[in-house]
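Open question from group meeting: does this chain pack into something compact, or does most of it stay loose? Before anyone orders reagents, we agreed to write out a predicted structure and look at it together. Recording both the input and the output here so the notebook holds the full record.
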Amino acid sequence: MKRTTGQDRSITSKWRPATQAVRGGTARSEWGETSEALFLTSGYSYDKASDAAARFAGEQQGMTYSRLQNPTVEMLEKRIALMEGAESCRTMATGMAAMTAVLLCQLSQGDHMVAGRAAFGSCRWLTDTLLPRFGIETTIVDGSDTDQWKDAIRPNTKLFFFETPANPTLDIVDLEAVCGIAKEAGLLSVVDNAFATPLLQRPMDFGADIVAYSATKMMDGQGRVLAGAVVGKEEFIEKTLLSFTRNTGPTLSPFNAWVVLKGLETLDLRIRRQSENALKVASFLDRRVATLYPGLASHPQHNLAMRQMDAGGTILAINVDGGRTQAHGLLDALELIDISNNIGDSRSLMTHPASTTHAGLSAETRAAMGVGEGMLRLNVGLEDPQDVIEDLDQALVAVGL
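Structure tokens returned:
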């Protein structure tokens, strides 16, 4: 089955992110299907042996093996790159595969990087446990303090790595300032943008060099599959990242890529509605307990967040005074909201980070990050926000709040 030529980038690059999320990167076969085709194949055949040799030598266009290329996966990669305003994208099996690959592909023994202290638990495991095994040092800084980024730079520093908003503390990093410091020092900046997605925040517009995603989250958005993505300049993606991923194999399956393509079609609708819902829920909670949400005026970095983001996002956190006992009691009292450590889902989900997503970190590290025993993280879904509020209200009352 012969595939038609893909889209003309000179045309598609003019489209806005919401349009890119529906149509970007589409390539149709001779059948002219309107929905992206699912190509479930591990390998590809060649008309002649010389064609195979030419493809492996990079002298002929075409696919060789689905660890490197797949038509369905390629459509997703092109779509995410277009949404991000990036030159290129490579997808991976999970968000953590993307985070691991984007660091290991460019760091070697003796190198140093600077990372924001507020981060997903597994990302802190990379910086604190995995990378030191290979002789790679990391200086952890308060991401909100731009002077700390500048002061942490050493002669062997290679990159900055941070999340904004951060998981689960909702800390905000000044993208323009921190990425500017990196550029001035000749370093690369790597930003985890999973909480916002390109629909609410495009870090490259503020100077970021590389953006990484857990596409499992908002991009799929319905809790179905795992996926990750890294976007940036074509030279970095094709020459630095690709050589690492092609030989280590953190490959995204075509089926999962197809599911994420379908999820992207509704991303603009979902993330904006969920952000509206999250603001209503956060406003209610803020009157009862300490609440962290970038869209609230009470957030210490609200003004910065609103300069960088189109909305506050779908995630918020609260802190209860009664520690783990009260936090777990509140979770157990929920009737509508699910207890789950996932985020980005169309369903409202709540978890206790200290005993789930950040349980692998020491109590001292969690405390330094601001992840206390009384913290709860809430992903606000597409339900009627009043139903979510009423569920939280009765759960708060059940634990004496």
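Observations to bring back to the group:
The two ends are 63 Å apart (CA to CA).
Residues 267-285 form the longest helix (19 residues).
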